[in-house]
Design goal:
single chain, alpha+beta, Creatine Amidinohydrolase, six-stranded mixed sheet, three-stranded antiparallel sheet, 21 strands, 36% helix, binds manganese (II) ion
């Protein structure tokens, strides 16, 4: 692992520890493999909170932190060792490694990852039981969600911990660690901003190269193939989420990713996709005419969405509430629709705008961060270091009888990734055109 990465993950462990009492114990579970069918598994994806704290990308691993220290039996020196962090990893296994992939092994944890102590994951149950029996820790932080979905070898090991929960809970506060990590993850530091910037820039380049090649009668999945080819070609290892390539009426299905239909001349095509770079995500949407030329009605609806998007981005700065941006966006879209005479009295505009104006983005596409205002905590207010998407949309599906027919089958969404800085919003995906003339020019033969 590169030094910058090592230091980043170390800084996250230190930050989390600094938020806790001396008598706290934190247990963060990594992901396990998930079955796909018969003997085939889904591609391994690490638990994002675990990745944030470790940068480690193998299954069946567990991180234990004790800000006030813990004493454990050291496998290397055979002595009692005082440490603040232990990473439990899979045992070295030459046969399994030949079939499935290399394993780091506990003895390489410190050198490779910069985490003080490495241990084999078969010890996790005994170590946790031993630490708890010492009556030193009165707060234990763990993710209930991850514990609930835990399978495989670590699950077996932690069974004792789970069954001692009831007697443990009268003396020890058991709390969810996700809340603390969600607060931390909402503000990105320089290292993270660079990761998202890269993912977003590659996503923009992938869109740029792909949009030029779109022709009527292509299949949606063929557009997807081009896009994903460019992501990998430009150095991103994966997609952030299942790519959405939606033609015609499919533009009105928000998370359509079947991608099996043929694109028809005269229809719109909505592409919502992102590249993933070291687990950090981009997330962009462009809506383009399949044949390279917007119709009058498509153009009218598109311009409303584009104007709203520009106006929302202009409003972004520290202190502004994300929920207010949403209200403002819906208001702008509503005005645009009224101007075109598309909103009859009594109709609820949100029937056609469907979703909010955006979300935080980072290790998760819809980033698992604190984003609400509850009590004294106001995470709805933007601060410098947040990265959000801005993605207003209007959707008139073919069965929207109250909308004139020529406007139906038109779904338009335009999405960019925006970094909140103290000066305002910086659009990370600025290199990708979105003006009508620029898109038509890009699609010209
Ligand atoms: Mn999005």
């Amino acid at each position: 692992m590169e030094l910058a990465e090592k230091l980043f993950h170390k800084s996250r462990r230190e930050k989390l520890s600094s938020m806790l009492d001396e008598n706290s114990l934190v247990i963060v579970l990594g992901s396990t493999n998930v079955a796909r069918s018969y003997d085939d598994g889904y591609k391994f994806k690490q638990n994002k909170n675990f990745y944030y704290l470790t940068g480690f990308n193998e299954p069946n691993a567990v991180l234990v932190l004790a800000p006030g220290g813990m004493e454990v039996h050291d496998e290397k020196s055979k002595k009692i060792k005082k440490t603040k962090e232990i990473l439990f990893v899979q045992k070295k296994d030459p046969l399994r490694e030949t079939w499935v992939g290399r394993r780091l092994g506990y003895s390489n944890v410190k050198k490779e990852l910069g985490i003080d102590t490495g241990m084999v994951n078969s010890k996790i149950g005994d170590v946790v039981a031993d630490l708890i029996s010492r009556d030193k820790y009165n707060k234990i932080y763990i993710s209930l969600f991850d514990l609930n979905f835990l399978t495989g070898e670590v699950k077996e090991q932690l069974r004792g911990f789970e069954s001692s929960w009831i007697t443990l809970s009268t003396n020890v506060q058991i709390m969810d660690v996700n809340f603390l990590l969600a607060k931390m993850r909402s503000v990105k530091n320089e290292f993270e901003i660079e990761q998202v910037r890269y993912a977003s820039t590659v996503t923009a380049a992938g869109f740029y190269n792909t949009i030029q090649m779109i022709k009527p009668d292509m299949f949606e999945y063929q557009v997807q193939a081009l896009l994903e080819y460019h992501y990998k070609e430009l150095g991103c290892q994966d997609v952030a989420f299942e790519t959405i390539v939606a033609g015609g009426n499919n533009t009105c299905i928000l998370h359509y990713n079947t991608n099996r239909n043929k694109l028809k001349s005269g229809d719109l095509l909505l592409i919502d996709s992102g590249a993933e770079f070291n687990y950090y995500n981009g997330d962009l949407t462009r809506t383009v005419p399949v044949n390279g030329k917007f119709t009058k009605e498509q153009r009218e609806v598109y311009q409303i969405v584009l104007d709203a998007q520009y106006d929302v981005i202009k409003k972004i700065k520290p202190g502004v509430k994300l929920t207010d941006l949403k209200k403002y966006s819906v208001e702008r879209l509503k005005k645009g629709m009224q101007k075109l005479g598309l909103l009859k009295k009594g109709f609820d505009v949100t029937k056609y705008t469907l979703h909010g104006v955006g979300h935080h983005i980072g290790l998760d596409t819809h980033d698992a961060v604190a984003n609400k205002s509850i009590g004294k905590n106001d995470y709805d207010k933007l601060v410098a270091g947040n990265i959000i998407t801005v993605e207003p949309g209007i959707y008139f599906p073919e069965d929207a009888k109250e909308i004139p027919e020529r406007y139906r089958k038109i779904g338009v969404r335009i999405e960019d990734d925006v970094l909140v800085t103290k000066y305002g919003g910086e659009v990370l995906s600025d290199s990708l055109p979105k003006e009508i003339e620029d898109i038509e020019f890009l699609m010209m033969e």
